Amino acid sequence: MEKIAVLMGGGKGTRFWPMSVKKRPKQFLKIFSDRTMLEISAERLIPIVGRENIWVVTVKGMEEEVKKQLPFIEDRVIVEPMGRNTAPAVLLSMKRLMEVYSDFTVSFLPADHHIEKVDEFVKQMTAAYKAAEKDVVTIGIPPTRPETGYGYIRFDKTKRLLIDGVNFYRALGFVEKPPLDVALSMLKEGNYYWNSGIFVWRASIFEEKLKEFSPVFYGYFQKLGEDNIEQVYSTIEALPIDKAFMEKLPGFLVAEARFSWSDLGSWLSLWEVLEKDSRENASRGEVYFHDSRGNLVITGKRAIVIGAEDLAIIDTEHGLLVMKKDASSALKKLLESMEKDD
């Protein structure tokens, strides 16, 4: 049975403005090294599925950049006519893969997440593929704080399955981004994981469960063909695969991740993983801090920061951003309103 991996690389990276812009979103940027997020994401999949079984799904207009950054990808790029969240991207990808392979297990992973302890990641994913031969699987991240910006997966601690040294639990469902008091309660209970957005399943099981538990999206799946993709996309509901499919399942397996993970969904999340000085300031460029704490500064110019606390100051060729580093939701809304005005 073939093992396939699909990197989802069509996101806009809105919360990473002004470093991430529409024509060059976060997955195409060199944030941690001289390699892009997409290149790093593909590289850590090679020991799991092999270079020849890595695919990328992206939005029309980005496919050439994908091929430029991943020359080995060849024709394994699935192109969406427009961005409609991850559920349509998964349906289109599954349709394409089923035309190429007869029987396979496949993982879907964001192309712009930051993962450390790659050996652990390889171990987890290899075990997840084995579990996915009989069940739908996702990866859960043990929470380290009462995070209100992530979705959670509730699981049954009494139903543990050990596969190749990796703990899997029977999931009981998803919890939307909770308010702080609920997040604190869930952290105390200890039977919740953060939702990583990584999913693994066998093609035949996916199709069977999609038909049974998500008949509307199964209808879209059936309609998708070579000549009508744009037409179907214009009518399909723009939902994440979590809502369109995973949340409807009566049960699935969740693996307990033992690697370090960040979705890099905001400037705050980048600050969390970067090296900091003694006053919790993180920076890229020639930056001098005085009487300042907890800031993130990225600039190509010499910069002096005095008396500032918990700010994100990002200066690029596309613009200058100064905000409280936890104000990513406001940034996204403002950019969306600016886009409508243009």
Keywords:
single chain; 17 strands; Spore Coat Polysaccharide Biosynthesis Protein SpsA, Chain A; alpha/beta; 5-stranded mixed beta barrel; 342 residues; 2 domains; 4-stranded mixed beta sheet
Outline the structure in words.
- The chain folds into 2 domains: 262 residues, Spore Coat Polysaccharide Biosynthesis Protein SpsA, Chain A (Alpha-Beta Complex), CATH 3.90.550; 74 residues, no CATH class.
- Helix 3 links the parallel strand 2 and strand 3.
- The longest helix has 15 residues.
- A 5-stranded mixed beta barrel has the order 6-9-7-8-10. It has a 4-stranded mixed sheet with strand order 12-14-16-17, covered by helices on one side. Strands 5-11 form a two-stranded antiparallel sheet.
- Helix 7 crosses helix 8.
- With 342 residues, the protein is an alpha/beta fold.
Tell me, what's the shape?
globular
Average pLDDT rating: 94
CATH architecture of the largest domain: Alpha-Beta Complex
Number of H/I helices? 12
Distance between the termini: 49 Å
Largest sheet: 5 strands, mixed, barrel
The helix/strand class is: alpha/beta
What is the CATH fold-level name of the largest domain? Spore Coat Polysaccharide Biosynthesis Protein SpsA, Chain A
The number of strands is 17
Helix residue percentage: 25-40%
Query: What is the string of SSEs from the N terminus onward?
Result: EHHEHEHEEHEEEHEHHHHEEHEEEEEEH
Number of domains: 2
User: What is the beta-strand fraction?
Assistant: 25-35%
**CATH superfamily of the largest domain, please?**
Spore Coat Polysaccharide Biosynthesis Protein SpsA, Chain A
Reading off the top of the CATH hierarchy, the class of the largest domain is best stated as Alpha Beta
Radius of gyration: 20 Å
Q: Unreliable stretches, pLDDT < 50, 5 or more residues?
A: none
Placed side by side, the strands forming the largest sheet appear as: 6-9-7-8-10
